[in-house]
Amino acid sequence: MRDEGAGVTTRPAPTPHRPRNDPGQYDDLADEWWRPDGAFAMLHWLAAARAELVPPARRPGAVLVDLGCGAGLLAPHVAGKGYRHVGVDLTRSALEQAAEHGVTAVRGDAARVPLADGCADVVAAGEVLEHVPDWRRAVAEACRVLRPGGTLVLDTLNDTALGRLISIRVAELFPGVPRGIHDPRLFVNARELVSECARHGVPVRVRGVRPQALGMLRWLVRRALPGGMAGRSAVAPPRIVPTWSAAVLYQGRGVKGG
């Protein structure tokens, strides 16, 4: 949240009594989704990087299913690729915003997707697997709704000591990063994810990613200045770039066989 009188950015913390990873936090933070300097700023950067893995539609009426779509942050980045964008999420306040950005909103659980087998040309599962109690079931559902020849794209947090350190202990020190949004017990081991996707007919290759260092530093400095990001929207946000290690954050992409 921002104290407009003082021009100071404060931490938009979820309701204090909520446990880690409580879905109600997204209602608490509903006004943050589309703020470029808000609690979900990094999700914007990740959405842009995820969209780079989405191929242009190869047929009329192609469908992209966006699991854990939130407020539809992927939408601007895939708008010109020729898909009907269907977003699945549990949070009504987020789905309402997604619909305002051209997403066909469907309320549902990523582990029990209320869509037909093979309905999707692309399934995007961005920053959602580390939020579901049973990520293997969510992977099975993502693969189920994907048609043969369709593309699965995902990104998530790795279940490593370094992943837990950076994503929880370090990240939550930064102003504006909500405390408790992640539960490290739900992080997803990259090797196990690759194995699980293969078991469902989707061979996936993963790579580590991170925010570009100089861009991230500039963004943090700009955000810390009096007035925050006001009047500075022309400066590009940090890019998500490949890195040698997948120990913290990683992307995956695969094509379903058959």
From TrEMBL:
One of its GO terms (biological process) is methylation. Keywords: Methyltransferase, Transferase. Residues 65-154 form the Methyltransferase type domain. Transmembrane segments: none annotated. CDD domains: AdoMet_MTases (cd02440). Residues 1-25 are annotated as: Disordered. The keyword Transferase applies. It comes from the Bacteria. GO terms for molecular function: methyltransferase activity. SUPFAM superfamilies: S-adenosyl-L-methionine-dependent methyltransferases. The keyword Transferase applies. InterPro entries: Methyltransf_11 (IPR013216), SAM-dependent_MTases_sf (IPR029063). PANTHER family: JUVENILE HORMONE ACID O-METHYLTRANSFERASE (PTHR43464:SF23), METHYLTRANSFERASE (PTHR43464). This is Methyltransferase domain-containing protein. It comes from Plantactinospora siamensis.
